[in-house]
Amino acid sequence: MSNEGDLSRLSAREFAARVRQEMVPLSNTCGYFAAMPLSEEDMRGYLEEPTGALPPAVQSLLGGLFILLAPYLELGSQPGEESVTFEKPASGREAWAAQFPLEGLATLVFAIKDQQAAEYHYVFYRAVATLVEAGLSEEGRERFYGLLREELRSAVAGEVDQGGWELKQALRRRQKKFARDSKLFRDYARQACIDTLTLYLHGICCDIDVEAGPRQLPSRPLRKRLQVFFELFPPPQGYAVFPEHLSTT
């Protein structure tokens, strides 16, 4: 295994390339490398539990997943230029994740020092959701986008997360005909898809609460969105998504 001095201050991409041959299999489709010792509890919380809850169809879509765990990630001068570091970056310079393809594998690098497993799960599933959204079938994408257009025509308020909410407000201010395919709509739809996929995948693994509020998507349209992903990416055997499935898992 490479030592700390060899890996310190490498870019995330260089770090991944350096340790690629030392990847430890987690499953037929997932492997990992940790730049620091992991306890059994760490293994469960950072690797086994989140990857074990990934739907088989998601793993098939991704083809392969390489997960790298580093103490810290530091922002570079440009997006996508994060660096691995063993010292805590200055305030405002921290990054939690980086992702890129490497030798045919979707590669995710996570900073886990000073981060709770529960927070890590959200970051992990958001990174996976970004990859899944990019690989959605045209049919799946149109099903989801159709729901969004229906919500917009019905003036449904709220969103799943802040990014989607802000883009939804911008779209409503500047575009009145939501059936039209525009850059504004595509930007919003992509973010809403990632936000909803993150919630869906995270909810398979963990018991999470969706807090009610004026910016939160109401339960009925949220259920319709989650149902699309439930049909496209059914959870692994033994996992439930909706309350009515709990008694059958």
- Overall number of domains: 2
Task: Provide the structure class.
Answer: alpha/beta
Strand-residue proportion: 5-15%
Oligomer: single chain
Topology, number of strands: 8
Q: Taking strands numbered 1, 2, ... along the chain, how are they ordered across the largest sheet?
A: 1-2-3-8-7
Largest sheet: 5 strands, mixed
Low-confidence stretches: none
What Rg do the Cα atoms give? 19 Å
Morphology: globular
- Along the chain, the helix and strand elements come as HHEEHHEEEEEEHHHHH
* Average pLDDT, all residues: 89
Indicate the percent of residues in helices.
Answer: 40-55%
> How many H/I helices?
9
Distance from N terminus to C terminus (CA atoms, Å) equals 40 Å
What key phrases describe this protein's structure?
alpha/beta; five-stranded mixed β-sheet; three-stranded antiparallel β-sheet; globular; 9 helices; 14% strand; 2 domains
Describe the protein:
The chain folds into two domains: 4-134; 138-235, no CATH class. The strands form two sheets. The chain has a five-stranded mixed sheet with strand order 1-2-3-8-7, sandwiched between helices. Helix 5 (117-134) packs across helix 8, helix 6 (138-153) runs antiparallel to helix 9 and helix 7 (162-174) runs antiparallel to helix 8. Helix content is 47%, strand content 14%. The protein starts with a helix and ends in a 17-residue tail after the last helix. The protein has 249 residues and is α/β, with parallel strands linked by helices. The longest helix is centred in the last third of the chain and has 23 residues, at 183-205. The chain is globular, with a radius of gyration of 19 Å. It contains nine helices and eight strands.
